[in-house]
């Protein structure tokens, strides 16, 4: 089932989410989040974006890999073909010193896209949808997607990485998004539905 995506301005997007246990893994939510992600033509989605304050997010960087030409793949993916994975109770244990800037966007902030500097690679410990533990290192665009979604579960948005002057310049655009004065090709939940 496709769920509405919460827009910028919703309090839950600034909430540090609660961990899950094997008994509380929301299987239906995970399925609905995949439906929502693909319905919105996205590549990553975190539980708070659909109104659930739990440490859960999805990433599908294989989609982007399949859409890229071979030259771009080499730059963004190095020796891998992307991932499709569920991350529960994730903890990032290492960040590379190498950093890079690339454009990011967010389904909760439609219509905006900015270059953000992030580490090239990360090491992350997490549980999958079966609560099996994993520790893996990811790089390039996959690491970027994971960081973006991981930060959602900690109440951080990618725009928080922009310089203060840039954040001030886009304040009006963000206000319009929070009031529902934006068009998206997917269902959204706005803080003020009196659009």
From TrEMBL:
<dbReference type="InterPro" id="IPR023635">
    <property type="entry name" value="Peptide_deformylase"/>
</dbReference>
<feature type="active site">
    <location>
        <position position="149"/>
    </location>
</feature>
<dbReference type="InterPro" id="IPR036821">
    <property type="entry name" value="Peptide_deformylase_sf"/>
</dbReference>
<feature type="binding site">
    <location>
        <position position="148"/>
    </location>
    <ligand>
        <name>Fe cation</name>
    </ligand>
</feature>
<feature type="binding site">
    <location>
        <position position="106"/>
    </location>
    <ligand>
        <name>Fe cation</name>
    </ligand>
</feature>
<dbReference type="Pfam" id="PF01327">
    <property type="entry name" value="Pep_deformylase"/>
</dbReference>
<keyword id="KW-0378">Hydrolase</keyword>
<comment type="similarity">
    <text>Belongs to the polypeptide deformylase family.</text>
</comment>
<keyword id="KW-0408">Iron</keyword>
<keyword id="KW-0479">Metal-binding</keyword>
<keyword id="KW-0648">Protein biosynthesis</keyword>
<protein>
    <recommendedName>
        <fullName>Peptide deformylase</fullName>
        <ecNumber>3.5.1.88</ecNumber>
    </recommendedName>
</protein>
<comment type="function">
    <text>Removes the formyl group from the N-terminal Met of newly synthesized proteins. Requires at least a dipeptide for an efficient rate of reaction. N-terminal L-methionine is a prerequisite for activity but the enzyme has broad specificity at other positions.</text>
</comment>
<feature type="binding site">
    <location>
        <position position="152"/>
    </location>
    <ligand>
        <name>Fe cation</name>
    </ligand>
</feature>
């Amino acid at each position: 089932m496709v769920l509405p995506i919460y827009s910028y301005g919703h309090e839950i997007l600034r909430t540090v989410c609660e961990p899950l246990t094997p008994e509380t893994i929301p299987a239906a939510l995970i399925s609905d989040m995949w439906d929502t992600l693909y319905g919105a033509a996205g590549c990553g989605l975190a539980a708070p974006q659909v109104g659930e304050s739990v440490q859960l997010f999805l990433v599908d960087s294989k989609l982007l890999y399949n859409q890229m030409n071979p030259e771009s793949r080499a730059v963004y993916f190095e020796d891998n073909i992307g991932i499709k994975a569920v991350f529960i109770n994730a903890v990032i244990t290492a960040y590379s010193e190498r950093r890079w800037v690339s454009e990011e966007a967010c389904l909760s902030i439609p219509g905006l896209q900015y270059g953000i500097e992030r580490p090239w690679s990360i090491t992350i410990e997490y549980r999958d949808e079966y609560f099996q533990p994993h520790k893996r290192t990811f790089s390039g665009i996959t690491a970027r997607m994971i960081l973006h979604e991981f930060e959602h579960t900690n109440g951080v948005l990618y725009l928080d990485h922009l310089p203060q002057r840039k954040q001030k310049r886009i304040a009006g655009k963000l206000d319009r998004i929070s009031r529902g004065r934006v068009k998206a090709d997917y269902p959204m939940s706005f803080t003020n539905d009196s659009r």
